[in-house]
């Protein structure tokens, strides 16, 4: 390590101590001078001590020097903590843990990645400084949402990396890693949508719910709002606007899925899906403007579970079945069979057939066929939501939804014809 880099590393070590020391000093600013055991100067010295220990370890090629310094610091912190515990009933160890972190990051700044050490030091200071907000956020969560966070971490960070990335089963169409990745992706979309609705609040009305619920399941939202429309007929325009908006959000959701699994298909579907989505959005906004004339806002439908692990597993099984059947249809019935199967699959779920066709487009299926199949599935799913609004919500709601989704279907069909030409 050259002289300039050595000085830079020591400067970063000192800066880490300054950052954390400022936060801790401000946090304990109301304590009397003799009662503050670790303040700005202490943390600056701890950061420099870590940097010096790292420099000595580099020159002597002995990492044990850093370990000895850490042991000495630990002994001093234990003594300091014992004295503080005698004076007060405070049992927190946050400041002491931060001191250990500053020492180690100071050593890292000289011995290893200087920028990583600096970034980590900023992170430590932020964690300490945002204590009230972190605690408020923790108290804001309910048990179901905490479980959802843990479940999402389990399926994404633990299970996913362990799965094989090679094909299995008939025609080797099942790739466990890819199938589970889609389960994680769908779960994450629902997770984001759930918390977006909670953060924005119910006062923003059913329309905002439609926007974010469309990221997870526009069909489920259509069913819920159609039921509510029979109980609260005064808000037909608001309910219809939310249903149309949720259905319109399905199209950008499909684009996001394709961007993850098969970006090469995006250019063909980007224009048609943007046109379809904008059509539905404009009509839903017009209905919302009319719905604002209602005397009061209805209650927002109950929020769905942030992560439904059982539903995610069912989706994985459905996706595996769709992949297998789609490959079989392609082999024995050609492109026409793929289109027919896309329409049938779209009646229940767009994501599964989208992911299946996107994966098949990597080799066994022509990209043009995959694009057309995805568009057919999306339009078929739109027909289903139109039917639900009529059957479950009644004629009044159905007519309003038909205006919006009818426009979506017409624009989508026109885009499909252009793809064929």
From TrEMBL:
Q: Which residues form the DUF4010 domain?
A: 184-393
Name of the protein in question: DUF4010 domain-containing protein
Q: Which organism is it from?
A: Spiribacter salilacus
Keywords (alphabetical) are:
Membrane, Transmembrane, Transmembrane helix
What stretches pass through the bilayer?
Answer: 6-26, 38-58, 64-82, 102-128, 148-167, 179-200, 206-226, 238-260, 266-289, 309-326, 338-358, 370-391, 397-420
**InterPro entries on file:** DUF4010 (IPR025105), MgtC_SapB_SrpB_YhiD_N (IPR049177)
Top-level taxon of origin: Bacteria
Q: Which PANTHER family match?
A: DUF4010 DOMAIN-CONTAINING PROTEIN, MEMBRANE PROTEIN-RELATED
Q: Which Pfam families match?
A: DUF4010, MgtC
Starting at the broadest rank, the lineage of the source organism is: Bacteria, Pseudomonadati, Pseudomonadota, Gammaproteobacteria, Chromatiales
Q: Which residues form the MgtC/SapB/SrpB/YhiD N-terminal domain?
A: 10-136
